[in-house]
Amino acid sequence: MEIIEKTYLDAWKKALKYIIDFGTDFTDKDGRVCREVINMTVTIEDADADYEAPIDIMQQFEWIYPTKEELSSIILNREELATYQFSYGPRIFNYQKNKDQINDFIIPLLKKDPATRRAVVSLYNPTTDSNVLSKEIPSIMFMHFKLKNNQLNLTCFIRSNDFFIGWPGNIYQIFMLHRYVADKLLVKMGSLTTMSCSAHAFSEHFEMINKVLQK
Amino acid sequence: MRDTEQSILNVFKDNPTREYNTSELAKEVFPEEYTTIENLLSSPDKIHVHEAKRKKFQLHRKLLYYLNKLIDEKILRISRIQEKGEKTFALAIEDGDITLEKGYKKIIITKPNMPINQIEQYEKQKIMKKFEEESWINRFNSILLECSKLTSLERLYHIIKDCFNSINDAIALNEFDILLRARDESYSSELNLFLDRLAEDTMNLDRTVSLIINIADADKLMLKSFINHYCSINPKKINMIFNLDNKDTQRASDILKNIITEFSRQKIKINIRNLSMGSAPYIKGKAGIYTYDEEDWRVYQKNVKGNVYGLACSQTEIAININRFFEVYKTDTEFRQAIINASKVLLQANTIQRRKSNEYFRSINILNNPNSPDFYRYSRNYIRFWNYDWHKDMKDNHYLFELIKSTKELVDNFCYSEETIFKSCGVPIRFKIVFSSAFRNFDPVFMGERDYKKANVKGVADFYKGEINDFITIREKMFELFDGGDRLRIFRTTDFKPEDIVHEWSVILSTFKIPFFTYDFSGLVGMVKLTNFI
């Protein structure tokens, strides 16, 4: 399934509606009923658009949603914090404590060869994550940066994606990294695409999803 | 700006929400002088110790001169006065950035904004209270240190002192019996000195230490000698928790009788962890009891133990005066909403604590490096209840039990949902809230007097029938509800033989589902008369 929209909010609503209408149900290991669509691709044509809109809606519900500040620091902060089992920032900016994948690879590579197809950031670490007993492994697996017409496009591969509660936070974080790289390259942001292997929503959230769809 | 003032402000700049006492500030501002004093204080030479005390006094006076100047300028304020009159200081500025300029030097301090407070109205009504509000985010409530990893008394002492800066209530020394094994001739006096120094520090800093002792594993002679010294100095803020099961009451009856004799003479409470109910350690702080989830503890023992020097036990806590709540509010729905609001405040506090962990808990992270994530893996947050048994006949409280039970389910769902939300957003957190009772020392002013029924015991027969039996049966139910641990307090009111008490413990341990109890001799009038103890 492929969704292409101009804004984040429209893309999110369309994806949620598709999951509700066409997803298939299964019960997960925690006994929760999950409705799932596999291999869903969502593209926002103008990545610089309303990137805060989904998260703003999520913060209106009764729960405590992670703050933008915390979400941003999770992806942009290279410092390992003991309080998190893992964090995206150190994996991106200090992979295995010796590789800044953005500043030492992506940016110099795209500057040197703007047509490159090698600008990949990996967040998955098989040496620690490919463990049968591991529960805490990242959902975002890798990101691919591509310059086209002097605009920076980003494609992000997500293995498991709760499209209702997770995607607004994920997209905010991905946007932050996208903008960071675009600013460093002095180019405009192009499109932002998420490819979700499992795009899903849980039955306990269906009522709230319907409220979002009516907005 | 003078250098000393600059140094003081730099301490607050590093940690703007924290409060510091004079000793902590002296250590940071005059590190070299302080180290010299510390070394002299631990000297066996009395002249050196006397000299160190004199120098420490001078250093504190010097520091206080500058602190008072900063207070006059409304940059700092006295946040509280501890026992023995020691003051603690905090920044007097509001949240946000402040630039302090004097002469050619300037310093910018950023005090983080606190999140919206969903319990403000309850706080104003004196229904809810955050524990140690000034430091409730930048300090843990309780942690545990593993004596099996810290067998040098000197190193252990310095680590405990360091950890006092990161906690606002209790430190447990797990498997303290490992340190009570005979070494060389001077070891016994080293142990006594260790206890003396700890007793002084806990009083000065208003912290609690729980010494957790497995009776079955203890070197009985060393334990006896240590107990004699402990009882002779009777340290108010160091408690001993004896881990035992019913079989131990027979196998170790001699040492237990000795403990009963010595403790009862000084009217010191005896704390018993019932090992047949689980092996997770119990910690007794001033706010209340702390413990770990049994399943978590099993996982820790199997997979993590040996990798870390310590474990966080409790991060933040809030107490609720239930009696007062129902004087103001009438419905269960309002109660559940209040608890959910408190849960949200705990979550927000955790968020700040998490993000600032490298700043607030730097020394603990260094200590446990490279396994520092394991230190945080099992910690929980506490909601504590005060005056929950306001009906004097606790049998009438069936309704309250049901209310607490249904509220707990709601809170568990809240924690699970929040963990899921944060994980889904790429923020893998652990967030657990447990319920427990509060002690009056959580905050004596807020708590007020507790109106409750005491379990006054005259002999073993009381445990089989009548009021005491009923009382303990009801407390068993409370233990089931309070997943953060609780304690049963039994008051002895008549003379006894030590073997009588051992017998009573055996009955409690084998008959009731009570994981932790305190045997209290304060109900005895006058001098304790031990009859027929040989």
Describe this structure in words.
The complex is a heterodimer of chains A (215) and B (534). Chain A is α/β, with parallel strands linked by helices and 215 residues long. Chain A has a single domain, classed as Thymidylate synthase/dCMP hydroxymethylase domain (Thymidylate Synthase, Chain A, 2-Layer Sandwich), CATH 3.30.572. Helix content of chain A is 37%, strand content 27%. Chain A contains eight helices and seven strands. The longest helix of chain A has 19 residues. Helix content of chain B is 46%, strand content 20%. In chain B, helix 2 crosses helix 4. The N and C termini of chain B lie far apart (69 Å). At the A-B interface, helix 3 and helix 7 of A face helix 13, helix 16 and helix 17 of B.
Task: Summarize this structure as a short list of keywords or feature phrases.
heterodimer; A: about 220 residues; 7-stranded mixed sheet; 7 strands; B: about 525 residues; alpha/beta; Arc Repressor Mutant, subunit A; 3-stranded antiparallel sheet; about 20% strand
Task: Describe the secondary-structure layout.
The complex is a heterodimer of chains A (215) and B (534).
Chain A: E1 2-5, H1 8-22, E2 24-27, E3 33-44, H2 53-58, H3 68-76, H4 88-93, H5 102-112, E4 120-122, H6 126-129, E5 140-148, E6 151-162, H7 167-185, E7 188-202, H8 206-214
Parallel strand pairs in A: 1-3, 6-7
Antiparallel strand pairs in A: 2-3, 3-7, 4-5, 5-6
Helix pairs in contact in A: 1-8, 3-7
Chain B: H1 3-14, E1 20-21, H2 22-29, H3 31-41, H4 46-72, E2 76-81, E3 87-91, E4 96-102, E5 105-111, H5 120-124, E6 128-130, E7 140-146, H6 153-164, E8 167-174, H7 187-205, E9 208-214, H8 220-233, E10 238-244, H9 246-251, H10 253-265, E11 270-274, E12 282-284, E13 289-291, H11 294-304, E14 310-321, H12 322-328, H13 332-355, H14 357-360, H15 362-368, H16 372-376, E15 380-386, H17 398-424, E16 433-437, H18 444-447, E17 455-457, H19 466-481, E18 488-492, H20 498-511, E19 516-520
Parallel strand pairs in B: 7-8, 8-9, 9-10, 10-11, 14-15, 15-16, 17-18, 18-19
Antiparallel strand pairs in B: 1-3, 2-3, 4-5, 6-14, 7-14, 11-19, 12-13
Helix pairs in contact in B: 2-3, 2-4, 3-4, 6-7, 7-8, 8-10, 10-20, 13-17
